[in-house]
Amino acid sequence: MAESFAFGIADRVVGKLASLVVQEFSLAWGVKTQVEELKDTMSTIRAVLLDAEKKQVKDRRLSVWLGKLKDVFYEAEDVIDELEYEALRQPGGAWDEVRNFFSSSNPLACRLLIGHKIKNIGKRLDKIAAEKSQFDLTERFGDVPILHREREMTHSFVRASDVIGREGDRENIVRILMLSDHDPAENVSVIAIVGIGGLGKTTLAKLVYNDHRVVSRFHKTMWVCVSEDFEVQRLTKEILTSLTDERCDHLSIDKLQNRLRKELEGKRFLLILDDVWNTNRDKWLELKALTMGGAKGSKIVVTARSRLVASIMGSSPAYELGGLSHDECLSLFIKCAFNDAQDKQYPNLVEIGRDIIKKCGGVPLAVRTLGGLLYLKTDEYDWVSVRDNEIWELEQKEDDILPALKLSYDELPFDLKQCFAFCSLFPKDYKFSNLELVQMWMTQGFIKSRKNQEIEDIGNRYINELLLRCFFQEVVEEIQRVWYYFKMHDLVHDLALSVARPECIMINFHSQNVSERVRHVSLLDTHWQEEEDILRFVGKLRDVRTIWFPMVKAGPISESFVTTCVLRFNHMRVLDLTNSSFKVLPNSICSLKHLRYLNLSNNDKIKKLPNSISKLHLLQILLLDGCVSLEELPRDIGKMMSLQHLEVTTKETSVLGNAKKEGRGYFNSLRLLCIRQCNYMESLMKGLQSLTALRTLVIADCYGRASLSVELTALETLLICNCANLDLSYGFGGLERLQVFGIWELPYLVTLPHWLLQGPSSNTLRHLLIHDCGYFRAFTDEEGPLNLTSLETLVIEECPQFSALPEGMRHLTALRRLDIRYCPKFSALPEGMRHLSSLTQLKIEKCNKMLTQRCQPRIGEDWNKIAHVLDICLDGIRISRTNNQVTKKRGTGGLKLHPKPRN
């Protein structure tokens, strides 16, 4: 259907037609009348597109009409983008010098060609617009604001108090797990939780997994999301990773299996296999055999939608999960739709809500989604519109909750609709990164820019809005408010697939029927095919804007594939060549004038990039991290005027510093820079005074002895990981906006750098993260107050020499969260802790045993220093301040800096 794309494209094109470059063009070339007429026609059509998109479900003719419109809209956008490209290509480049480009000195053929295209598009659009009168369409406008509303981000860990209606189910499953002879014939027995999608099988499994009785019962616990790919080697890796918290991608299948057997041998373990679809008994028996050395009473809990899956895995009988009762659904709905006790103020809305939840069939996902849709809405009209929506009158299958999800989708603002639909290009159970997804949306033009707001911030607000409406779930924060991962429920993914077709599809090289209207292609092949098959497949596509390889280690190995894509898809915006193994990127890459996103990461063969890549004047994202053979960056890379995000691995001694600095705008748009595995690096930028727009800098896995003396006046986030020889003593100049500073695996760091604590950043820093620094022992060698007046989060992990917080802590008046983990010498809290009135969360884990004793409620020597803190967790024991009740919960793990995930 691709319902959201027509209005989105029309809105972008109308905006671009009103831009300065088009106005100058139309005046200089004598086509001002045609351009104005085109803009007027598109504005008129745009006004009825929202109504047309809504009604097309019941009118096939309307759907065809929208398809023809979108084809013309795409062509119009391509022509306008060509103008922008040509303007950037000129030596002056600024918009106020655009007349120079349109002067008589430019090739007449180019001017005539673009002028002809605009006139042709206008004629075609007039013809299609004339058909509008057949459909009785109403004008509607899409400028519904995306509210800046927030709820607290959650981890995959689930609290029992957040779950409604599953107390009995939890007790039943826990009771089964406590039995040592559930299956007397084997040491390891299987329990399957079975039910339709959206019932909360995974949530129930999490409740059980985190239950204090289960935590105490089993020596080893593991959680693996299985999904549709039941591949034994992958699952073995995932089980080991969950068990040891170590990646084992480098191990062979034999070593993997031997290690898993050894880890489980003689241990009573619990393994959760979530979302299993496998019906191949041989595969299951192969995996199960690896676990049979566990001690008596070991359990495997499986969640699945199918009784057949449960039967194949040997679970008899399966635990059948039912729906929630009406009262339970109402409680959950009120929790999602209202803040605190707000429902008491609106009894009329609660009554309407009672009717709405009857349509949800007892399915929590449907209830949460509709509750999220109505969150903070207090106008009765909005609630009645949901209750009486005609979507409920459509024919439905038994247990079908897609209408409830579709209704929430229909209520999204149009820019969020196209962002959500684009997520259909990622496979089920994909671990989304906010950085990656915002980059993709940005390069497609889906994020509407707003005055005085950064485009990345707007993109993250889009994600937050989709989280609030339950389109995303299972958020895990890696870096506070900066870097986080999340997933999409299978049924929500099904919805994304249904609303994105035919524009977006996931296919493989053997797919037969491919629509001509496909614009965004995600290739799911895990192994590269024969050259002939690939070229035959590419020949089926036309006007593609996105080529994406989401599967791990499944990038193209063929140079001819790249060359063919370049020649065939000259309007492409996104080209993902990650994990590729070709040696040469063709010079013809410069012909992709519209390209915004180019990913070459993890190609270990490529040594040089053609300098012609610098002619990609609209390119915004260039990813070269993991290109370990890359000798240098192209000399003219600094001339890429639109480049905003650069991730790089190179053998150069001065990253970016050897690039040619002639002409205008040397990296003046660069906002995110990630330097990884640059082992020869001696300086960040030799002779370069500043990157005036840079907001985020990540330096990771660089083992060379380097210094970082550079002015970064706009920098907000600085992350440094595994750079043993990096010299931080000279530091950065002009850090007037730094908000996040994180360091990982710096073995020789003893104290924090002086420029961080005494420079301008001391007044702006909000989040400080210190992880795995073997010699780190104190913030500073000097006595006195800490002037980090804005600091909200402080996390210190795996620092064996760290022994005490400074007495100057009392001055951290904004501190809200303090985590100290795996610091064995840390044994007491400073007196200044009692003055931290803003502190609401304190977590201490695996530190000196004396500290746990000192912090015991009422009796501990340090208790009075922290008694005011609302949420205290000591070695997995959660303490309630109100009544000093103690309950046992599983910890959620620490913050770690990982490379960008590729599922």
Rounded Rg:
29 Å
Q: How many strand segments?
A: 28
- Oligomer classification: single chain
Poorly predicted segments:
93-105, 147-156, 886-903
Q: State the end-to-end distance.
A: 27 Å
Characterization of the model:
The protein is α/β, with parallel strands linked by helices and 903 residues long. The chain is built from 27 helices and 28 strands. Helix 3 packs across helix 6. The longest helix has 30 residues, at 60-89. The protein starts with a helix and ends in a 15-residue tail after the last strand.
Topology, please?
Elements: H1 5-17, H2 20-28, H3 32-55, H4 60-89, H5 98-101, H6 108-129, H7 167-178, E1 188-194, H8 201-210, H9 212-217, E2 220-227, H10 232-244, H11 253-264, E3 269-276, H12 281-289, E4 298-304, H13 307-312, E5 319-320, H14 326-337, H15 347-357, H16 364-373, H17 380-387, H18 402-410, H19 414-422, E6 432-433, H20 434-444, H21 455-468, E7 473-479, E8 483-487, H22 490-500, E9 504-507, E10 520-523, H23 531-538, E11 546-548, H24 559-568, E12 574-576, E13 597-599, E14 621-624, E15 645-648, E16 672-676, E17 696-700, E18 710-711, E19 717-721, E20 732-733, E21 740-744, H25 754-758, E22 767-771, E23 793-797, E24 817-821, E25 841-845, H26 849-854, H27 863-866, E26 871-874, E27 877-880, E28 886-888
Parallel strand pairs: 1-4, 1-5, 2-3, 3-4, 9-10, 10-11, 11-12, 12-13, 13-14, 14-15, 15-16, 16-17, 17-19, 18-20, 19-21, 21-22, 22-23, 23-24, 24-25, 25-26
Antiparallel strand pairs: 6-8, 7-8, 26-27, 27-28
Helix pairs in contact: 1-3, 1-4, 2-3, 3-6, 4-6, 7-8, 10-11, 14-15, 14-16, 15-17, 16-18, 19-22, 20-21, 23-24
